[in-house]
Design goal:
By secondary structure, this protein is mainly beta. It is 5% helix and 61% strand. It is built from 1 helix and 33 strands.
Length: 472
Amino acid sequence: MMPLLNFSSMKAEGQTQVRILQADRLAGETTEMGRVRKLLNNVVMETDDLHIIADSVYQYLDLDLVDAFGNIQIETDNQIIWSDSLRYNTSTDVSTFNGRVVIQGENAVMFSDEMIYNFFFEIAEFPGRIRLEDADGVLEADRGFYFSIPDSAVFYGNVQVTDQTQYAEADTLYAIRNAQFYELHGNVYLEDFENRSRMRGDFSSSDSTGYRELRRNARLQRINEAETDTTFLQAEWIELTDRDTTSIVDAYENVRIWSERYASISDSARYDDLAELFILGGDARLWREDLQLSAELIEIQLQDDEIERLLATPRAIAVTPDSVTGRFNQITGDSLWIFFEESELQLIEVHPNAEMIIHEKDENDDPEFAIQVASAELFMYFSGSDIDSLKYYRNVDGRYIPEAQDPGSVRLQGFQYNPDLRPERPSEWLIPSLPPVSGEPMFALPRRYLEYLRQREQSSVTESADRAGTTD
């Protein structure tokens, strides 16, 4: 080996000075690209900011270019870079790395077949497929940029992010990693493993507070803990807030909810996971079997994913068509409560300003008459699906409507029955568009990078042993 420590380095105006520390052989020649200094075998070079190791290096002295080949390793204050080949422009501090590029930063490691790196601004451009790994998970994309100083990035095309708690894919990702702020654009798909939720939309953003939003054709699919029921929510805008003990979902504009047991439409909706409570607001309508409940606000209280109670207010109205005659049984009031037990209807409670119309049939199941009652309070008890008893309190007023007076045409104020508006079961569940993220980088790892990993692992083992010895 022939050390070349005494070689004078070349430095033009505005040009980075390259110092040759070591090489086995040195040759020089003049080519179409001007004078070339060839450093062969076990080459070590440095600048004020870089330490470069390679199998061979060509210095184009008239063009301010350095080409390096084979087992390249470059160290800076903030990262180490490995690749198969390198072209370094000493006047611009811009380098192009090709073939098995690995960049190890303080918080992440990236893999690609090509990288254009500006050492002055510490900006990396990846024209081709890129993979980023950190302590939390893995990101892959068709191309992207990474900005070391603010620890931020933008990735384009078939973007995928996965960790132990979630998976995401989109056309574009903007990330400020140290602030844990992320934006996803285009064909967004999100999966939250802990909350058993899947989401789609055109745009999503999230931050370190546990807040996430989904906009434009936003859809959320959630499976209950027992995996026996699925709830599907669709809106123009969905917000999710994860707190220490609960998860809150807010939805706005043309909100549509479907589940196995009920469906609803409203202007807005909120779901509190801890309280198991849905709150529907603004021209809300809910369907359960043949029942339609309508009001400005509807609360759905769940218990173990089953409806325990419904509350509708103000001036709520519940409508149920008779299964035989098709006539509409109707109940309305300022506040209307519906209670269930083991999914069976138990009680309807209305107050104040309660009013109802109940249709009766003869022994042949033909329409016979109707009863219309108004009172301050009304309680309707059920046995199975049939009315068991009725109770009225204060200011009771009622009338009998014989068949001759066409009771089937009578409607209480605020009557609504719109089964055609009821959301239907989605034809397809939400699923990823892209294949799963690979567990390994897209190429065999460079030799010097593997050596770096072994040294780091050995250092970690030694430090652990030292700490254990100190403790003893």
